[in-house]
Amino acid sequence: MSNIATNILSLRKMLPGSVTIVAVSKMQHVAALREAYDAGQRVFGENKVQELVNKQGQLPADIAWHFIGHLQTNKVKMIVPFIDLIHSIDSLHLLREVDREAKKHNRKINCLLQIKIAREETKFGLSPEDAGVLLDNPEYVSLHHINIIGVMGMGSFSDDHEVVRKEFKRLHDCYENLKALYFKGHGSFDVISMGMSGDFMVAIEEGSTMVRIGTSIFGERQY
Ligand SMILES: *Cc1c(COP(=O)(O)O)cnc(C)c1O
């Protein structure tokens, strides 16, 4: 069995069955994704639009592709025909563009609100307060081709698991608050996307339902 297949199977054994594993395949060759696919992996995450589109064209159609990087509005139209979940919605402006393009394809696209939980200045995302402001905006209510199904966050790049744990707790709290305030009664707000190779066990302990794992599946990134 290939290393990639072994890694996927041992992750699957380690994690609760209810947790979705997104195989983060950015900067990996198509052959590596194919190995993961042959091991049964069907959810892949990419963070660059062009790379995602190239790979999508070369791999089987039953893959669920997730976009996990910063998304520019002018590139939304390239992924809308096939994307399964966008993890990185960080403005109403972006959401409006996804809705507009999705409408052209007669699709309703699942999205996560990216919440800024780490202290590092470089991280994209909405503050929990701004997520509320977005969901309060009457224009949001008028968008019928997007479906917000949860939140996503990235912990600090820190070896200190207690720092990261606090950030994951903050994301979980944010999720619970948004769910209570904006999604009561409609049951589809149920995704907390948090946890990467270095911190997924902490993320699971703090309530993650979706982990995004690159290095622990594919090894160090290639190109
Ligand atoms: C690269 C990336 C990951 C995966 O990182 P690993 O440490 O390789 O598991 C997860 N989420 C996002 C948003 C990423 O950009």
What is the H/E string? HEHEHEHEHEHHEHEHEH
Helix content: 40-55%
Briefly note the CATH topology name.
TIM Barrel
Radius of gyration, in angstroms, nearest whole number = 17 Å
Query: What name goes with the CATH superfamily?
Result: Alanine racemase
**Briefly, what CATH class?**
Alpha Beta
What is the total number of structural domains? 1
Q: What's the architecture, going by CATH?
A: Alpha-Beta Barrel
Q: Give the ligands present.
A: pyridoxal-5'-phosphate
Describe the protein's architecture and organization.
- With 223 residues, the chain is α/β, with parallel strands linked by helices.
- It has a single domain, classed as Alanine racemase (TIM Barrel, Alpha-Beta Barrel), CATH 3.20.20.10.
- Helix content is 42%, strand content 17%.
- It has an eight-stranded parallel beta sheet with strand order 7-6-5-4-3-2-1-8.
- The longest helix has 22 residues, at 161-182.
- The two termini are 24 Å apart.
- Bound molecules: pyridoxal-5'-phosphate (PLP).
- Pyridoxal-5'-phosphate binds next to strand 8 and helix 10.
Secondary structure blueprint with pairings:
Layout lengths: L2 H12 L5 E5 L5 H9 L4 E4 L2 H10 L5 E4 L8 H4 L5 E5 L2 H13 L4 E6 L13 H9 L1 H4 L4 E7 L8 H22 L8 E3 L6 H6 L4 E4 L1 H4 L5
Parallel strand pairs: 1-2, 1-8, 2-3, 3-4, 4-5, 5-6, 6-7
Helix pairs in contact: 6-8
The chain binds pyridoxal-5'-phosphate.
The site of pyridoxal-5'-phosphate has 14 residues, from strand 8 and helix 10.
Search tags:
223 residues; 8-stranded parallel sheet; 17% strand; single chain; globular; alpha/beta; binds pyridoxal-5'-phosphate; TIM Barrel
